[in-house]
């Protein structure tokens, strides 16, 4: 990515998809060029959390909501220390933010962090294109980076695809750290960081859990060195088919029978650990309004998602695995994609979405309580 911070919303910009479809608009954020996988997010709020979610590494996010940036940018809501999206696409950026916590405009924040974006394009048409043809490689070019369309298309097609990408090590912490329990400490959890969001250990800390966040390359010995009551595998970017190391660590945890909880990438890791395959969705689930049914209770939840891969597990009943029986516990009501797994003979479960829900609905917050219940049961 090459960038400069010349001007705001003045330079011309062009978005080029790998199939040749082109959209012209104005620069938004930094001026230059950037590449990634074009995906769309259906959330109307929470853009700051989306931008700073490590799961969006190497993705160019198209916002389906037409007005973006209305509440500016504050210093309290980021999910990590930086913006992770490779590029940002909006239709009508806010001219003046209005919120008592706002410290600067979204345009200024994108420019300061070198994130190339584009505005003033038909994001509805772009979203429909991606729904029909699937997520694909894309480039955004602005200012002096604009050239002949054939040359720009060649650049886009030279970018590596998301399928086969091993990215968790690029976004995870390199040093372990501890998030202390809020109030009395009840449990210790080893959390393997594959691209963890800041709100996730906070949700556990609210429940009296001391969270030891470990790098993505943590070994089984590293996990058990903290004497955990439970083990957690986080969300993260990339193709789960490349995540052989986390899969081997998770299998060791399952062998020991330690309570285990995984979300998003962690759900795909559990699927692989149990012997299921994974596959790439046509355009994925991204946003904070995805309907999911908890099949263990029948309850339908509105949930926050960001995933382009899914677990290929049977929906019609329990399956036998080397670690006992497992069933699909949650399913997306839009397309029947597997959204959760639950072992019936060991204390382990996972969901494909984000129960920490920052920003987003709080329907799935109970899953952290379910994790606590597993650890209470093991201790008893």
Summing up helix and strand content along with how strands pair, one would put the structural category as alpha/beta
Radius of gyration equals 21 Å
Question: Uncertain regions: pLDDT < 50 for 5+ in a row?
Answer: 3-7
Strand count, sense and barrel status of the largest sheet are: 11 strands, mixed
Overall pLDDT confidence: 94
Q: Report the total helices.
A: 10
Give the helix proportion (percent range). Answer: 10-25%
The proportion of strand residues reads 25-35%
What is the tally of beta strands? 21
Shape: globular
Q: Give the oligomer, counting copies of the same chain as homo and different chains as hetero.
A: single chain
First-to-last CA distance = 53 Å
Explain what the structure shows.
- By secondary structure, the protein is an alpha/beta fold.
- It is built from 10 helices and 21 strands.
- Strands 11, 12, 13, 14, 15, 16, 17, 18, 19, 20 and 21 form an 11-stranded mixed sheet that branches.
- Strand 14 (230-233), helix 8 (244-256) and strand 15 form a beta-alpha-beta unit.
- Helix 8 packs across helix 9.
- The protein is globular.
- It starts with a strand and ends with a helix.
Task: Please give the structural blueprint.
Layout: E1 2-4, E2 12-17, E3 22-29, E4 31-41, H1 47-51, E5 59-63, E6 67-68, E7 87-89, E8 92-93, H2 106-112, E9 116-119, H3 123-133, E10 136-142, H4 149-157, H5 168-171, E11 177-179, E12 187-192, H6 199-205, E13 209-214, H7 220-225, E14 230-233, H8 244-256, E15 260-263, H9 265-273, E16 277-294, E17 300-312, E18 319-321, E19 324-332, E20 338-343, E21 348-351, H10 366-379
Parallel strand pairs: 4-5, 5-7, 6-8, 7-9, 12-13, 12-14, 14-15, 15-21
Antiparallel strand pairs: 1-4, 2-3, 2-10, 3-9, 4-10, 11-13, 16-17, 16-19, 18-19, 19-20, 20-21
Helix pairs in contact: 8-9
């Amino acid at each position: 990515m090459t960038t400069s911070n010349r001007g705001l919303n003045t330079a011309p910009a062009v978005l080029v998809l790998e199939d040749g479809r082109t959209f012209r608009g104005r620069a938004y954020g930094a001026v230059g060029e950037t590449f990634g996988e074009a995906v769309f997010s259906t959330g109307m709020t929470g853009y700051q959390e989306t931008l700073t979610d490590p799961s969006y590494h190497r993705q160019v996010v198209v916002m389906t909501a037409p007005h973006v940036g209305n509440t500016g940018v504050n210093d309290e809501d980021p999910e990590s220390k930086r913006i992770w999206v490779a590029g940002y696409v909006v239709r009508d950026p806010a001219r003046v933010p209005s919120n008592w916590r706002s410290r600067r405009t979204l345009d200024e924040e994108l420019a300061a962090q070198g994130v190339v974006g584009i505005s003033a394009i038909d994001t509805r048409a772009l979203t429909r294109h991606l729904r029909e043809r699937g997520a694909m490689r894309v480039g955004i070019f602005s200012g002096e980076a604009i050239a002949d369309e054939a040359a720009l298309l060649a650049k886009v097609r030279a970018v590596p695809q998301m399928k086969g990408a091993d990215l968790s090590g690029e976004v995870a912490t390199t040093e372990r750290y501890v998030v202390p329990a809020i109030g009395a400490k009840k449990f210790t959890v080893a959390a393997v960081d594959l691209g963890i969001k800041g709100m996730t250990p906070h949700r556990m800390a609210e429940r009296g859990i001391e969270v030891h966040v470990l790098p993505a390359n943590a070994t089984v010995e590293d996990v058990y060195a903290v004497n955990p009551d439970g083990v957690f595998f986080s969300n993260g970017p990339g193709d789960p088919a490349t995540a052989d190391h986390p899969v081997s660590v998770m299998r060791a945890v399952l062998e020991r029978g330690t309570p285990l909880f995984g979300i998003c990438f962690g759900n795909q890791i559990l699927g692989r650990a149990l012997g299921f395959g994974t596959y790439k969705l046509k355009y994925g689930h991204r946003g904070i309004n995805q309907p999911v049914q908890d099949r263990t209770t029948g309850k339908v939840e509105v949930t926050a998602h960001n995933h382009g891969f899914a677990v290929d597990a049977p929906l019609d009943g329990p399956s036998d695995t080397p670690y006992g029986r497992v069933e699909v516990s949650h399913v997306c009501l839009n397309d029947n994609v597997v959204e959760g797994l639950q072992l019936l003979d060991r204390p382990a479960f996972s969901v494909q979405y984000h129960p920490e829900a920052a920003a987003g609905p709080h329907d799935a917050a109970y899953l952290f309580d379910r994790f606590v219940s597993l650890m209470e049961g093991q201790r008893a």
